[in-house]
């Protein structure tokens, strides 16, 4: 058998062959920061597990020194040199063919190689920072998903776990970090050699190295684990908040998982050029600056929350992902969905006043929105090539993943769920697991049919909308796949349904397993309402109206459509303030989604919104704000003649709370109030409320003359920046130039991002074009360009033309860091006509690549959904009357 092997059979395979597996890597790396190059040597102790003449491992973008390759079997100690060395570029593999079948058992493979410190924010790359006014390079690794192979030849798949002994040779004055602590340091003139302690067994994508100049702050957990946050020199103060969160979180997770943090130290580092938000490398977590640094004076409340969520997310991975690792990328959601869910669990415990589980509904909403596209994908998705992995780091793996975990936890109960997770972590520690392994543990602990229940959510894409109709003695349910394009898919789910009648004290939960079902609820109603009859009660329409709310607390990943009568009951419950904030959000979000899918009219959505006039809860208002902006946007395309009046109504809706909150922070006010203030003002500016716009501009000019003014703190600054850009035109550029000056002068990454995300709100297409070109200039880091792509309606044609004209450069620069999806999503999706969708489809026909194919299809689907929605709004004959009534009810 082994004699018949040939190089050809290893080509075009999704996974590496399993006849040899690495046990330990001794890895030496010597980066040259000024030449942007590195040299390396790997000694890989491996087990030959099956007869083979070949060793097949991954390598990409490396110059492998062929003469250096040797393999020595431990027993015979005979050194073999490969006869055949083939680097297959498309598959990123290195195939070593020997002249004989390798003896089973242990051996050592030696390889030397060199490479470039690239500019693509993946593999072993360089990031640029300033020190004493001079530009300097640092060397950083980013290996997830499949880029360790760009730094050293390795078995670059999560299931090939091994230990790592890393040695770095670097300039003596620099800080050099890796996953484990340094055990030996030898200084040799200008260079030093650092040897790091051997790691526990781990996957290659979690290996990390950082070399540069840093300051740090340090603290210890109660167990004596040393935690450090490394920042640019002079900025270590900004690491204190993250440090504090990290120390508390390690302790919390130790309790939750009943397993201590597995490594002797944890370092967290802010990297100036970073493709994603953060990366959970074992013991050396790397972050984009704005995801780690927080400054009491210069950062907004939403940044603070983002830092906390990012840190708690990455630390959850130290258990979920690093200690227990997914067997293959198909199970990526086990990493990302769980870390996302855990991050809220931790944030809720550290910052109970943030109502973070209510805010979690933002994530659930994103998951529901993406998963309602025909071009969505199942949570468990087949991966056939490394270049398909990046695009599954999406809202399905993260938000849907986290949401179905929340759904399951709420079905099984928090205690049983925690017990099961702890036992899962213990069972699979230092090993790999698949989705079904987790279900098996949960099933054992709970006695519930977890595998069947959950497979219906992870193996098929989409989710149901449950239609609920009142029948004489109860209710009738029908589940049907919810798709925003209005079609009905044929998915079917096991849905953990919950409902309450007239009060949260009267609840029921059960599994809906079929397409149709009926439920007698007379007993429930009896307990909720004395001997009252549902029919009578609900038709009375008096002060104590009867209501039923499904999906209590919105812990389920599905939507609900009520018949008219049940919907009227809920409207009463909203107005009479009988419902939790989460449920008020759910009703509104479901209704909005049904409207986009043309299953409900815009007039009825507006009329539902009217029930929220007295809404006081910040989290609910947050959803009203986003939905209002989307409505304002679509009606400008659909019924421009009604747009102004619709906006008047939306403004009434938002203005009451905006006035209550005002522009100025109040002593002792809540975190949520501060965040909402910024969002509300930004929305009023975007929708076009003159008073807010004028005040925003007034405050901006005061701020411009006095950067320390208390009139424009970071939380409200974005509203002002957008308002200023709305005043800018080609003949009146001063606001734009002032913002560019702020951008150039600041060294805060949050501020830079804030400016970038405001610039393209300008209504003048010529300025929009200038802004877009600015994004491509050397003044904007590649990681930040994507923030500038949210272009005004008036600028969207220009942006599309610009994308086409610069496509070659843009795809070359951003494709490899997977940021290209943002370019496509932001610029393609806002359109709302079938013709545009066709034009775009045609442009991309010859330009699509696997790394963004799905994003592109999703964006085009969105354009078609918008087009259909526009038509349906035009056909909504009651709209005009409804709008007039709402806008003038107690209008302004
Ligand atoms: N493992 C990811 C980082 C990552 C993303 C690597 C995409 C490779 C490709 C990390 O744990 C993560 O999820 N980061 C998030 C932040 C988090 C708070 C949701 C990110 O980068 O957005
Ligand atoms: Zn993650």
What do these coordinates show?
This protein is an alpha+beta fold and 892 residues long. 42% of the residues lie in helices and 21% in strands. The protein has 29 helices and 29 strands. The strands form 7 sheets. The chain has an 8-stranded mixed beta sheet with strand order 5-4-8-2-1-11-14-13, with no helix packed on it. It has a 5-stranded mixed beta sheet with strand order 16-17-18-20-19. Strands 9-10-15-12 form a 4-stranded antiparallel beta sheet, with no helix packed on it. The model is unreliable at 530-541 (pLDDT under 50). Bound molecules: ligand BES and zinc ion. Ligand BES is lined by residues 144-145, 276-280, 309-310, 313-314, 317, 336, 339-340, 390, 393. One of its GO terms (cellular component) is cytoplasm. The active site is at residue 314. Keywords: Aminopeptidase, Cytoplasm, Endoplasmic reticulum, Hydrolase, Membrane, Metal-binding, Metalloprotease, Microsome, Protease, Zinc.
